[in-house]
Amino acid sequence: MFRPRILVVDDDPQMLSMLGEVLAGMGTEPRCVQSSRQAAELINKEKFDGVFLDWLMPELDGLKLAERVRWSKTNSTCPMVMLTGNQEPDAMRQCFRVGINFFLQKPATVERIQGLVKAARDLMLQERLRYQRIPLVVPIRCQWQVQAFEQSSKGESLNLSTSGMLARMEAEPPAGALVQLSFHLPGDREAFACTACVVRHAQGGQVGLRFVNLSRDERWRLLGFSKATISDAVAQPL
Fold it and tell me: Domains in the chain, please, with CATH?
């Protein structure tokens, strides 16, 4: 079962406690923090599927903390919720500029929180699948060009996500190269062919690959496979 990890930041202890209880009751794993400075440190250390932020806080307000989230290495794309009583159009524009996805108007009720979590759940699942690594060992074929000469190599995948793959190859394409990958997803008769970028090398001929310019069909095939195996996957950034 998918249990979103949600960072919740609010300097009001009563509001923080209520948010934590409601979110936990909905099957999520809330990480409740009263200090926005502490939250700024956490976003660079831990991976979250979603973030709840209060706008008015000492130290860093919600807008500044939202910017930190969007600048972070592993949480830059996670959905964010802003808690605020400000309904002015300019306030909403400020939030959109820093990447806020949803608003939770104060006073926040249990019903409003539950409705918002349900609305954001699919985005949080997509965020998890971007980083989740599913153990997968299947044969792969890789082709790339070096100074107009075509190179190719066989190998096998080690794990897979909707954003990339870790593979072991007989011959390693250079870092930064664009390669053409071909492999079969389990239970899928049609080969999965896509373009990927080599993002890193590791010992033992391991190559980190990030998918680029996936078609809509390719995205749906990866998403469908990942959703079907999410309960057995291990979360680990590429």
Answer: 5-132 (3.40.50.2300), 136-235 (2.40.10.220)
